[in-house]
Write a structure and sequence with these properties.
Layout (H helix, E strand, L loop, with lengths): L21 H6 L2 H10 L23 H14 L6 E9 L7 E3 L7 E10 L4 E6 L15
Antiparallel strand pairs: 1-3, 2-3, 3-4
Length: 143
């Protein structure tokens, strides 16, 4: 979760003096967080398109979230003139067709994203690489 990495979710709420991070216990009880995490959904499964459909989106469950983030990034922040384009790996242990392995990155397995950020580190736009799709080429144009 963020910049503090623990071995398991329960470790964020531990009271062990060596590894405790009290802010998590102060903000939300562990059981409540786990219950929210269990039932949190961003999509309606009844609206899922067939994988054979030419408009099928591999990121359909999270597409609205990513589109909302990109829209909000553009609304609330004007980037400086120094922008960088970067390939980012988001550590992910789950099962998806578009999980990538990049041996030169510190986090070798995960979701590959391309993002535009300014010199302060604020993200202006991001795209998730969804793997090779023979039906349509990967478009990385941010314009």
């Amino acid at each position: 979760m963020g910049h503090i990495e623990k071995n398991s979710l329960q470790d964020y709420w531990t009271t062990d003096n060596l590894i405790e991070t009290p802010i998590f216990r102060e903000v939300i009880p562990r059981d409540r967080f786990l219950m929210i995490l269990k039932f949190l959904l961003f999509s309606d499964n009844s609206l899922k398109e067939s994988r054979d459909s030419p408009t099928y989106d591999r990121l359909w469950k999270m597409r609205k979230v990513f589109d909302s983030f990109n829209r909000i990034f553009k609304e609330v922040y004007d980037p400086t003139k120094n922008l960088s384009f970067d390939e980012v790996i988001i550590k992910f242990k789950g099962r998806v067709l578009f999980k990538q392995y990049i041996p030169k990155k510190r986090k070798q397995w995960g979701l590959k994203m391309y993002k535009i950020a300014d010199a302060t580190g604020h993200t202006y736009d991001m795209r998730v690489y969804l793997g090779k799709d023979k039906r349509k080429p990967f478009n990385i144009c941010f314009l």
